[in-house]
Amino acid sequence: MSGCVAALVAPLLGQPAAARRQPEATSLSGKPLYPPDPIPNKEKLEEDLAIALSVTTTAQPEAMITIGRRHAYLWRYREAIDWFTRGIARYPADARMYRHRGHRYITTRQFDRAQADLEKAATLIRGTADQVEPDGAPNPSGIPRSTLHFNVWYHLGLTYYLQGEYSKALEAYRSCMAVSKNDDAVVATSDWLWMTLMRLGRKDEAAKVLERITPKMEILENGAYHRRLLMYKGAEKPEALLDTKSGDATTIATQGYGVGNYYFVTGDTARARAVFERVTAGSGWNAFGYIAAEADLARMK
């Protein structure tokens, strides 16, 4: 670590433990949610944040987005939201600011605010050319797999889904599929689209979503969604997706929610509840699957 970067990292590492352990969000059941302790790869993430903060053009939109994302990777979601809010104040016509803040409003369970931001972003991107979105945390191949338009529609669809507004979610995911140009994007969109159609009772349309899903797809980062879709097709067993001893918290939550939802839409409510409870007993509370399990459990009471 260079001397100047170390100097920037030191104050971050030296924060009082009590300050670092403030809850970043509240679960849908009212439980305070804290960053994990320890945060995996924390020293490298702190250094990345310090580098982002060290640039002289932090008021530029790309720098503000990077800084916000770096805070989020450290589970500092309130600070991330603050940076995107500053970005919106400075660049009110930049859809990227609303897309990123909307994402972190989802993480912190502020669905109404997420919806407002992402609907605004959808308005701003209308009629514009799509653009590849740089990865803040690159996949092992170092190839970005998502775009601005994809992320706006994907997160907007999720916001509706989490609130049980499945007809609106369906419209958003249809728009998302139209801009899903690689297999990672296709499987991510297909998964939520299938679940949405099943929640609406449109089983024939849901079955058609699965027709393009095959075991041999070019998946660089969305392996959990790919496995879920193969499970819906009958090519994977639900029990296999729950055997996640070697997976990280996000993978466990993602695959687990897919299994619980599969049981739910196929009529096994008791087993669905058990899996949702298993997901929400884990540590990956920032994962969309974890948040979706919370939302379903809240509606099942």
What does this structure look like?
The protein has 301 residues and is mostly helical. Strands 1-2 form a two-stranded antiparallel sheet. A hairpin with a 5-residue loop joins β1 and β2. α5 runs antiparallel to α6 and α6 runs antiparallel to α7. The N terminus is likely disordered.
Low confidence ranges: 1-19
Query: What's the overall geometry?
Result: globular
The largest sheet has its strands arranged as: 1-2
Reading the helices and strands in chain order gives HHEEHHHHHHHHHHHHHH
Please give the alpha-carbon distance between the first and last residues: 51 Å
Characterize the largest beta sheet: strand count, sense, and whether it forms a barrel. 2 strands, antiparallel
Structural class comes to: mainly alpha
Give average pLDDT, whole number.
92
Rg, Å, rounded: 19 Å
Q: Estimate the helix proportion, in percent.
A: 55-70%
Report the strand count: 2
Helix segment tally: 16
Beta-strand share of residues: under 5%
Brief write-up:
By secondary structure, this protein is mainly alpha-helical.
SSE arrangement:
Elements: H1 3-13, H2 17-20, E1 25-26, E2 32-33, H3 42-54, H4 61-73, H5 77-90, H6 95-107, H7 111-125, H8 148-162, H9 166-178, H10 183-199, H11 203-209, H12 223-233, H13 238-242, H14 249-265, H15 269-280, H16 288-300
Antiparallel strand pairs: 1-2
Short descriptors:
301 residues, mainly alpha, 16 helices, 64% helix, disordered N terminus
